[in-house]
Amino acid sequence: MVIRRLPWLVGTVTGIRAETATARTIVFDVPGWGGHIPGQHVDIRLTAPDGYSTQRSYSIAAPAEATRVEIMVQLVEGGEVSTFLVEDLLIGDEIELRGPIGGWFTWQPGDVSPVLLVAGGSGVVPLMAMIRAGRPVDFDLVYSVRTRADACYLDELSRHGLNHSVVYTREESGDGRPAGRIGPQDLPSSPAGRTYVCGPTGFVEAVTKLLLDQGSDPDTIRTERFGPSGG
Questions:
Q1: What is the DSSP secondary-structure string of 7-26?
Q2: Among 3.40.50.80, 1.10.3720.10, 3.40.640.10, 3.30.1360.170, what is the CATH number of 115-226?
Q3: Rounded to whole angstroms, how far apart are CA atoms 112 and 30?
Q4: Is the confidence at residue 203, as pLDDT, over 90?
Q5: pLDDT for 3-37, tens place per residue?
Q6: Rounded to an integer, what distance in angstroms lies between the CA atom of residue 73 and that of residue 20?
Q7: How far is Cα 102 from Cα 197, in angstroms, rounded to an integer?
């Protein structure tokens, strides 16, 4: 079996917008980009003038559209890659990208099964690619984030008419829910056709256990987790 290595491509920054005080959406035009499926990610590589190079992986935030690739970057304190992308990157800058990467945590446009999406923090990004892809079936989204100031995409989620709820872990929700992590009361009581859970490792493990305790079939749960990477 021959494994084809994905080439590094040069993308030009065509758009930057703030999502929160510490998170930025970045849009690239990437000549040679062959498309992607919601749920996949890309590698970003930065190379200094002295030849030092480092790379990080970022989920793709929007469905395929020609050579357009959109990501969201959350600033990590002390992180060399996220600090540059959030604080220093400018329109017109060129960045190396490699992808798309991943096949397990993907949703195929046209799938007609009911879907539950559960996001922790920036784990909402690949789920947004699924939501933005447009589909004729029902989505349910449960989005856990520290505070309102840390939440991304809330206005857009309302515009989509998506059935969604936001769980704040550090402050009370507008509906009177006290601050706290996701519990069984925050998840639909009946299992979905498929569930996608994305967030920090501890979050993913806790949510997966809740889903299994509620009777979800393990084969219907797709998970994507992230942990400390140096930023």
A1: PPEEEEEEEEEEEETTEEEE
A2: 3.40.50.80
A3: 31
A4: yes
A5: 568 999 999 999 999 999 999 999 999 999 999 99
A6: 10
A7: 15
